[in-house]
Amino acid sequence: MNTCRKHMAKLEPHKWIGEKINQLDA
To answer: Which tens digits make up the pLDDT trace of 1-26?
Structure first.
């Protein structure tokens, strides 16, 4: 979700994790 994406964006070190979750959420 966009909200989760922004939350992950704050976590620079875990940015790659946000992308993986983004694929699953997509």
So the answer is: 566 667 666 766 667 777 888 787 75
Question: Which amino acid type is present at position 12?
Answer: E
Does this model's pTM top 0.90? My answer is no
**DSSP result, 1-26:** -HHHHHHHHH-GGGHHHHHHHHHHH-
CB 18 within 8 A of CB 9: yes
Q: Where are the domains of the chain?
A: 1-26
Q: Which two tokens stand for residue 18?
A: 């946000």
For residues 16 and 8, the answer to whether their CB atoms sit within 8 Å is no
